[in-house]
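During the no-cost extension, the postdoctoral fellow (Dr. R.K.) reprocessed legacy sequence entries with the updated structure-token encoder. One reprocessed record is reproduced below for audit purposes.
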Amino acid sequence: MVPGFQQAAVFVERVRHPEPGRSVVPPVAVPRARASRDTADHRANQASLSGATGALSQALAAPAVNRNWRATVSTQLHALRMAFDEHIVLTEGSDGLYAELVGVAPRLARTVQRLARDHTALAAHMALFQSILDSREFNIDQLRECGAELVRELKLHWQHGADLIYEAYATDLGGET
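Re-encoded structure tokens follow.
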């Protein structure tokens, strides 16, 4: 087996199928108090985002004949937006994950900028989704398509984030300052 490939394969498998209570994010070289706090915060936020995304998907897939369908979808979207707002704080803040990753691997600054731009696009998509949901004459199929696309974009964003973390910590190019 190619050196490092098995380690990478294990990491990718952990990202795709995280164990409950286990962080996908590898440990980083930061002071112990901050590392444990940040890891716990990221783990909790990841679980919250994942749960909210799954709940929104389930709400969208439910039969729309139920009177509470619209309210249920709206509630799940609100929960997702709250978790996503927390994700932005944890990643984009001055001491957030993105600043830390660029500090460890400056070559990844462009990727970090792209992920931050994704946040803006995802927030706009959530706002559009909410406006369709709030419309008096909304189309259920249009709403479901918009929601499914939002879920797809979120999952793609998470995959890109996992790739970034892997690139920062599992790829050893050496010589970076």
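Residues 1-12, 23-37 have pLDDT under 50 and may be disordered. The domain at 32-169 is CATH 1.20.120 (Four Helix Bundle (Hemerythrin (Met), subunit A)). The remaining legacy entries will be reprocessed before the final report is submitted.
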